[in-house]
């Protein structure tokens, strides 16, 4: 007697009772997996998964076996696609190392691999591990991984894509990725993503991803194009990373200090509109090609970082942005000066900063011009500043004061007047330079 079939409300597949949750009206792939419906029990805050875990992975393997057994293996090349949609994945089964002497091939049949007897056209039935998962272009769309997702053993020949997926715990990947690896709109639930000391032969995409605690890509080599556009990293480690092709950090957010220490960019690097909430350090970074920092927001960790960004804008003939980072470079330089050891240079840098923010603020320079002019009014004392506010005649006095300060001729000449003339000349110069710095054509 044929067993009763149930139709999943999500995928519409018909399954028997062993692979179906009648209460949820969902198949074993799409049903919620909690302690309340018998998927696991809680013991000392840890999950102890039940036999339903094995049933789930057996169903996954049966789907892949059907592809393999239908004599379609030759057709499932690197362009063939297979998609898991809205699947809720439980814990991955334990992985075993292959032991040639023990001939433990059956132990390799876990998770997306299976071990069994397969009949192929024009061949004798044979026992083998079904690894067709490595040959298919796999997409996980809208899937949830409830436990550690271990993909370390899969040496894939076709693209692997995670689209709108959520990782409740850590995602583990192999150290060598020969095919494209993509993450779109994924949520990492404030967990780490460790792909350090890895080799990526093809494209790596992490676009619009969020809640990544530590993104560790240190000492890795990325030979293909890399795209981290609009992703959000709490912490990241790029130490010793080699980007062999173009890399995109457009609108990417880094919440903590970022140091691209010994990081090499062989080709175009785009940091346009990226946000470094804390400090950015490029002191030991190697850029071999063009780099774009337009619209980037960051606090400079040191003078060399500001100098490098300034230099990149100069090469692009963007003088306005270059001038801004020149001011930041001077500001970092002033932090290195000691009042006791570099007194003359320290005074010069402080005067330059106070008068015009290193030639970046013409408003600040104009303010000091007005102050010096008020001080130049005859019989004026500091308290007369209050009366200035209420007297229109004082505006004329300021105009006459500017004229007299800039005038060379004078019947009497004092040190005070000399100070005012020098200060006024310097401030007028800073005002003109600031206007020019902010209005020069790109």
What do you see in this structure?
The protein is built from eight helices and 35 strands. It folds into two domains: 51-94 and 130-336, 3 Solenoid (Pectate Lyase C-like), CATH 2.160.20; 343-439, no CATH class. The longest helix has 25 residues, at 415-439. The protein is of the alpha/beta class and 442 residues long. Residues 378-391 have low confidence and may be disordered.
Sheet having the most strands:
9 strands, parallel
Q: Percent range for helical residues? A: 25-40%
Strand order of the largest sheet: 7-11-14-18-21-24-27-31-34
Query: Which geometry do the CA atoms define?
Result: elongated
Rg over C-alpha atoms, rounded to the nearest angstrom: 34 Å
Q: Alpha-carbon distance between the termini?
A: 81 Å
Which CATH class of the largest domain is shown?
Mainly Beta
CATH topology-level fold name of the largest domain: Pectate Lyase C-like
Find the structural class using helix and strand composition: alpha/beta
Number of domains: 2
Strand-helix topology:
Blueprint: E1 6-7, E2 14-15, E3 20-21, E4 26-27, E5 40-43, E6 46-49, H1 52-69, E7 81-85, E8 88-89, E9 114-118, E10 126-130, E11 137-141, E12 144-145, E13 149-151, E14 160-163, E15 166-167, E16 171-173, E17 176-177, E18 181-184, E19 187-194, E20 199-200, E21 204-207, E22 210-216, E23 221-222, E24 226-227, E25 232-237, E26 242-243, E27 247-248, E28 253-254, E29 258-259, E30 264-265, E31 269-270, E32 275-281, E33 286-287, E34 291-292, E35 297-300, H2 303-315, H3 319-336, H4 343-356, H5 362-375, H6 384-389, H7 393-406, H8 415-439
Parallel strand pairs: 7-11, 8-12, 11-14, 12-15, 13-16, 14-18, 17-20, 18-21, 19-22, 20-23, 21-24, 22-25, 23-26, 24-27, 25-28, 26-30, 27-31, 28-32, 29-32, 30-33, 31-34, 32-35
Antiparallel strand pairs: 1-2, 3-4, 5-6, 9-10
